[in-house]
Design brief:
It is a single chain. With 845 residues, the chain is mainly α. Among the domains are: 257 residues, Serine Threonine Protein Phosphatase 5, Tetratricopeptide repeat (Alpha Horseshoe), CATH 1.25.40.180; 186 residues. Helix 8 packs across helix 10. The longest helix is centred in the first third of the chain and has 129 residues.
Length: 845
C-alpha cells in the first residue's frame, strides 16, 4: 500500500512541477523565437537592401560608362575636326608665307640693284681716295666671283635635289593611287592636285633660280666694266693730283714757303663730307689763311660751311622765328646750295611732320626768288612718293603726301598734281591707301575747295562709292565718315595757311606742275661737292643778287626793326599781364553743366546711334572733356528700365573712332566696378550688359578684366552679380566655345589670373563653384585640371622623409582630391559618394 501510494503520488508531484515550471519556459521560448524571427527578418532586409544598392550602383556605373564613351566619341570627333581645321589653316599660312617670300625676294632684288649702285659708287670713291693696288683689287674681285660661282653651283645642286625628291614623291603617290581602290575620288583628286601644284612650284623655283643667276651674271659683268673704267679714271686722276701737288710745291718754294699748311690740308679734306669734323672757328681761320680763293681747297671749305649753315637754319626754323630766318637763309648762296637746301628740308620734315607747314612756307618764300629751288624740291618729293608707294613704306608715304599737301596750300605745287595723286591712291583702294588719301584731303581740302570744287566733288564721290562697297576696314570707314563731316563744316580747324605763315602774296608766287607719270631727274649731283672754275665770279654775282633781294642797308634796318620789335614785345607782355590779372574764374562749373545737358539731350533726341554719333562728334570738346562724354553715355544707359542695345552700339562707335574714348571707357569700367555696391540691381544689370557689349565686339580691350579679383574675400554680392551678368552676356554674344578660346589665350593669361586664381586651392574652388553655379562650368576645365594635379605638384616639391610620411601624405592627397571632386561635382557625384560610404560600412560589418 505504501508503494502504491508513493507511486500514485509521484505523477501528481511531477504534474505539479511541470505546471509550476511551464509558464517561464514558455515565455522564454516565445522570446527566443521572436528574437530569431526578428534577426532573420533584419538579415533578409539587409540583404535585400544590399542587392538593391548593388543593382543601382551597377546601373549607375553602366550609365556612367556609356556617358564616358559618348563623351570620348565627341572629343575624338572634335579633335579630328580641329586637326583638319589646323591643317587647312597651316596650308593657307604656308601659301601666304610663300607669297610674302616671293614679294620680299622681288623687293630685295629691286633694292639690291640700288644697293649695288651705291656700293659701286662708294667703292669707286674709296679706291680713288686710298689709291689701292690694282693687283690686290683684281685678286679680291676674283675671289668674290669664285665665291659667287660656288654659291650658284650650290643653289643649282639644291634645286636639282628638290626636283628629284619631288619626282620620287610623285611616283610613290601614283603607285599608291593605283593600288588603293578603297580611296575616294575626292582624295585622289586632292593628291593629283597636290602633285600638279608641286610640279608647278618646282618649275617656278627653277625659273626663278635661272633668272636670278642671269641677273647676277649681268651685275658681275657691269661691275667688271665699272672696275675697268675706274682703274683708268683712277690712274688719270692720280697723275693730275701728282702734277698739281708738284706745281703747288714749286709755287710755295718760289714764294718763300709763306703758307706751308696748304699742302697738308689738301690731304686731310678729301672725301664726300669733307673729311674729319672741323670746328667752325677753326674752319674760318683756315679759310682766312688760304690766299688763293679760287683753289679747290678753299671751295671745299666754303662748301662745308654752306652745308652746315643751311642745315642749322632749317633745323631751327619755326612759326615764330621764320621771319628772322629768311634773311639769314638768303644771305647764303642758295643757287650753289639748292641741292643741300632741298635735302635738308626733306630730312627735317621726315623727322618732324608736325612742322610741315613751316617748311612749306620757307620753301614758298625761297621759290619767289629762286624758282629752281621749288621745282627741284617738288621733283625729289614726287620721286620719294613713288618709291614709298612701290615699297609699301607707309611712314615715308605719309610724310611725302603731307609735304605735297602743304605745298599745294602755299601754291608752290599746282592743284592738278593733288587730284592726280588722289586718283592714283583711290584707283585700287586698300586700307592704307584710303587712309593716306583721307589725310591728304584733310590737309589741303580747304584750298582744293576754293581752286577746283568740281575735282574735289569727284574725289568725294569716289570716297562715297568706297564707303558703300564696304570692303575696307571699319576704322577706315569711320575715317571717311569723319572726312565727310569735316567737309560739311567747311574744313573748320584745318585752314589752308595759318596767318603767321602767310608770307607770300598770291601774284608773287610761282606754281610748278610735274606729272606723276613723267620721268624725273632728282639731280643728286647737286648734293656733292664739285670744283667750280668760275667760283669767284659766281660768288660776286650772288653777292649782287643778295643785295638786290635784301637791300644794302638791310643790317641797319634789321637793327632798328629789332629795337622797335623789342619795345612792342615789352608793351604786349605788359598788356597781357594786366589782362591775366583781370581774368574772372567761374568756379560754379556752369560750362560743365551745360556740356552735360547738351550731351544728354543729344543722346535722348536721336533716332538711332548713327545720328547720335554724328551729332556728338560736332560738339566742340576742350582737351580733357572727352571723359564727360563717356560718363554721360554710361549714366544714360544705367537710367533705363531695361538695357538698350542703342547705347552699346554708340559706345562701340566712339571706341573705334578715337583711342582716347577707348581709354576713357577703361577708366569708367574700373570706376564702376569699384563703386558697384552703390548701384541698384537694375543699374547694375544695365552697366554689366553695356561693358559686355564693348568686350564682345572688341571695342574695349580684354585686359580690363585684370581689375576683377574673384575670391570670397574680395567680392561682395553686388560684384558677384555684376560678374555673373557680364560673363553670361559674353557667352550669349560669343558662344561658350569662342569665349573659352578667348579666356585660354596664352597672351592674356596675366590678365585672367585674378578671375581664375591658382595661388590657393580655396580660391580655385571658389572660382570653379561660382562659374558652375551660373551655368558656365565649361570655361573652368583648365582650372579643374590644375586643381586635380595640384597635390601631385605639391608632392613633387616636397622631399619624402619616410615611408610612413609618404603613406600619410598619399592618404591626405586622396582625401583632398576627393574633397575637391565632391565640391565641384553635381548631384550624381554626391549620390556616388553616398553609395561608396554604404559599401564601406557593409565591408566593416
Amino acid at each position: 500500500m505504501v508503494r502504491k501510494n508513493q507511486s500514485s503520488s509521484s505523477p501528481s508531484e511531477a504534474e505539479e512541477g511541470e505546471l509550476s515550471d511551464s509558464p517561464v519556459e514558455h515565455i522564454d521560448g516565445i522570446k527566443a523565437q521572436n528574437y530569431e524571427k526578428r534577426r532573420n527578418f533584419e538579415e533578409e532586409e539587409r540583404g535585400r537592401r544590399g542587392r538593391k544598392d548593388s543593382r543601382e550602383g551597377d546601373d549607375k556605373l553602366r550609365h556612367r560608362r556609356v556617358e564616358n564613351g559618348k563623351r570620348r566619341d565627341t572629343d575624338r570627333e572634335d579633335q579630328r575636326r580641329r586637326s583638319e581645321r589646323d591643317d587647312s589653316e597651316e596650308e593657307e599660312r604656308q601659301d601666304r608665307r610663300r607669297e610674302e617670300d616671293r614679294s620680299k625676294g622681288r623687293r630685295k632684288e629691286e633694292d639690291g640693284d640700288v644697293k649695288d649702285d651705291r656700293r659701286d659708287r662708294s667703292r669707286r670713291r674709296n679706291e680713288c681716295d686710298d689709291g689701292q693696288d690694282n693687283g690686290h683689287r683684281r685678286r679680291r674681285d676674283s675671289n668674290k666671283h669664285a665665291y659667287r660661282d660656288e654659291d650658284r653651283d650650290s643653289d643649282r645642286k639644291a634645286r636639282r635635289m628638290d626636283r628629284e625628291r619631288g619626282r620620287r614623291r610623285d611616283d610613290k603617290d601614283g603607285y599608291k593611287d593605283e593600288d588603293s581602290d578603297s580611296d575616294s575620288d575626292s582624295d585622289r583628286k586632292d593628291r593629283r592636285r597636290d602633285r600638279e601644284r608641286g610640279r608647278r612650284r618646282d618649275d617656278m623655283d627653277g625659273y626663278r633660280g635661272r633668272e636670278r643667276g642671269r641677273r647676277r651674271d649681268e651685275r658681275e659683268k657691269d661691275s667688271r666694266r665699272r672696275d675697268d673704267g675706274r682703274e683708268v679714271e683712277g690712274r688719270d686722276r692720280k697723275k693730275v693730283d701728282r702734277n698739281l701737288t708738284e706745281s703747288e710745291i714749286n709755287n710755295d718754294s718760289g714764294k718763300g714757303n709763306e703758307n706751308p699748311k696748304v699742302v697738308v690740308q689738301k690731304e686731310e679734306n678729301l672725301g664726300r663730307s669733307g673729311g674729319v669734323y672741323i670746328p667752325p672757328y677753326k674752319l674760318a681761320r683756315m679759310m682766312k689763311e688760304v690766299q688763293d680763293k679760287s683753289s679747290v681747297e678753299y671751295q671745299r671749305m666754303s662748301w662745308d660751311a654752306l652745308r652746315k649753315s643751311i642745315n642749322g637754319l632749317v633745323n631751327k626754323v619755326n612759326a615764330t622765328n621764320i621771319k628772322n630766318i629768311i634773311p639769314e637763309l638768303f644771305a647764303e648762296n642758295l643757287i650753289r646750295g639748292r641741292g643741300l637746301f632741298c635735302r635738308s628740308c626733306m630730312k627735317s620734315q621726315m623727322a618732324s611732320p608736325g612742322f610741315t607747314d613751316v617748311f612749306a612756307a620757307l620753301v614758298a618764300v625761297a621759290n619767289t626768288k629762286f624758282p629752281e629751288v621749288g621745282e627741284l624740291l617738288l621733283r625729289r618729293i614726287i620721286l620719294q612718293l613713288q618709291r614709298a608707294y612701290k615699297r609699301n613704306d607707309k611712314p615715308q608715304l605719309l610724310a611725302a603726301v603731307k609735304f605735297i599737301a602743304h605745298l599745294v596750300n602755299q601754291q608752290v605745287v599746282h592743284e592738278l598734281i593733288a587730284l592726280e595723286l588722289l586718283t592714283v591712291l583711290l584707283e585700287n583702294p586698300t586700307d592704307d591707301s584710303v587712309e593716306v588719301a583721307v589725310g591728304f584731303v584733310t590737309e589741303c581740302g580747304s584750298m582744293l575747295q576754293d581752286l577746283c570744287p568740281r575735282g574735289l566733288h569727284g574725289i568725294f564721290e569716289r570716297f562715297r562709292g568706297i564707303l558703300h562697297e564696304g570692303e575696307i576696314d571699319k576704322r577706315v570707314q569711320f575715317l571717311i565718315e569723319g572726312l565727310f563731316a569735316l567737309r560739311k563744316a567747311k574744313f573748320q580747324g584745318y585752314p589752308a595757311v595759318r596767318p603767321e605763315l602767310d608770307l607770300v602774296e598770291q601774284e608773287d608766287q610761282l606754281t610748278h606742275e610735274v606729272s606723276l607719270s613723267d620721268e624725273i631727274d632728282p639731280e643728286i649731283t647737286l648734293d656733292i661737292f664739285k670744283a667750280d672754275p668760275n667760283f669767284l665770279e659766281n660768288e660776286k654775282k650772288y653777292e649782287e643778287l643778295k643785295k638786290s633781294i635784301l637791300g644794302e642797308e638791310s643790317d641797319d634796318e634789321a637793327d632798328s626793326d629789332g629795337g622797335s620789335e623789342d619795345e612792342d614785345e615789352d608793351e604786349d607782355e605788359s598788356d597781357e599781364e594786366e589782362e591775366e590779372k583781370m581774368q574772372i574764374k567761374d568756379e560754379t562749373e556752369t560750362n560743365l553743366v551745360n556740356l552735360r545737358r547738351t550731351i544728354y539731350l543729344t543722346i535722348m533726341s536721336s533716332v538711332d546711334f548713327e545720328e547720335a554719333g554724328h551729332k556728338l562728334l560736332k560738339i566742340k570738346l576742350e582737351p580733357g572733356q572727352e571723359m564727360e562724354l563717356c560718363i554721360m553715355l554710361l549714366e544714360c544707359c544705367s537710367q533705363e528700365r531695361t538695357y538698350l542695345r542703342y547705347y552699346g552700339l554708340l559706345g562701340q562707335r566712339f571706341c573705334m573712332i578715337n583711342k582716347v574714348h577707348q581709354e576713357n571707357f577703361e577708366k569708367c569700367f574700373v570706376q564702376q566696378y569699384s563703386m558697384i555696391h552703390r548701384l541698384e540691381t537694375n543699374k547694375l544689370r544695365n552697366v554689366a550688359k553695356f561693358f559686355a557689349h564693348l568686350l564682345g565686339t572688341d571695342a574695349l580691350p580684354w585686359h580690363v578684366l585684370s581689375y576683377i579679383r574673384l575670391t570670397e574675400e574680395d567680392t561682395t554680392s553686388s560684384s558677384r552679380i555684376f560678374i555673373k551678368i557680364l560673363f553670361q552676356e559674353l557667352s550669349e554674344h560669343l558662344g561658350i566655345r569662342l569665349l573659352n578660346e578667348r579666356l585660354n589665350d596664352p597672351t592674356m593669361q596675366d590678365s585672367f589670373e585674378s578671375i581664375f586664381p591658382k595661388d590657393n586651392p580655396k580660391n580655385t574652388r571658389f572660382s570653379i563653384n561660382f562659374f558652375t553655379s551660373i551655368g558656365l562650368g565649361g570655361i573652368t576645365e583648365n582650372l579643374r585640371e590644375y586643381l586635380k594635379n595640384m597635390p601631385r605638384l605639391i608632392m613633387q616639391q616636397q622631399k619624402p622623409v619616410s615611408e610612413s610620411d609618404e603613406s600619410g601624405s598619399a592618404s591626405s592627397d586622396d582625401s583632398d582630391s576627393s574633397e575637391s571632386e565632391s565640391s565641384s561635382s553635381s548631384k550624381e557625384s554626391e549620390s556616388d559618394s553616398g553609395s561608396d560610404d554604404r559599401r564601406r560600412k557593409r565591408r566593416r560589418r
